[in-house]
Amino acid sequence: MRLSELCWPEAAAVLKRDPVVILPMGTQEVHGKHLPLSTDMLAPDRVVALIEQKRPDVLILPSLPQGNCESQTEFPGTLSLGPELLYRVLMNIFTSLQKHGARRFMAVNGHGPNAGPLDRAGLALARRGARLMEFNWWRCVWDMNPAW
């Protein structure tokens, strides 16, 4: 179920059940002259759609298409929050949901340099009684579907 499609009383009821909350995330960056800047969001959005088909009880957040991409900012269209701001954005998102009952989070990450801020957020959440699972899809893509 998509958080963006719920009204707030529905969201309150869902969050009280402590669902697995999934955040698809990536970045906007250059991928050569032939691929769109949103390339790092294509896989996380697809993986989350597949999860949703099998587990309609999970709560899916709107995609976070900006991440930490300091190394590509010389290319027009690349956007970077940097590691510190990305960490703060992640913590604000997760803390907002934790306040209403969520304790189990999953980030489906499409961009390697987001891993540091995610690791840091996971540690901070653990200290607050929550958990963050970081799923970097490219590390197990062949296990998901050998044809890929």
Walk me through the structure.
- The chain has five helices and four strands; from the N terminus they run αβαβαβαβα.
- It is globular, with a radius of gyration of 15 Å.
- By secondary structure, the protein is α/β, with parallel strands linked by helices.
- The protein has helices spanning 8-16, 39-54, 82-98, 115-127, 141-144; strands spanning 20-25, 59-60, 104-109, 131-136.
- The relative contact order is 0.19.
- The model has no long low-confidence stretch (mean pLDDT 94).
- The protein has a four-stranded parallel sheet with strand order 2-1-3-4, sandwiched between helices.
- The longest helix has 17 residues, at 82-98.
- The chain starts with 7 loop residues before the first helix and ends with a helix.
- Helix 2 (39-54) links the parallel strand 1 and strand 2.
Element-by-element helix/strand order: HEHEHEHEH
- Which runs of at least 5 residues are low in confidence (pLDDT < 50)? none
Helix content: 25-40%
Tell me the number of helical segments per DSSP (H or I, 4 or more residues long). 5
What form results from the Cα inertia axes? Answer: globular
Work out the strand percent: 5-15%
Give average pLDDT, whole number.
94
Major sheet: 4 strands, parallel
Spatially, the strands of the biggest sheet line up as 2-1-3-4
- What structural category arises from helix and sheet content? alpha/beta
Radius of gyration: 15 Å
Task: Give the number of DSSP strands.
Answer: 4
Distance between the termini: 27 Å
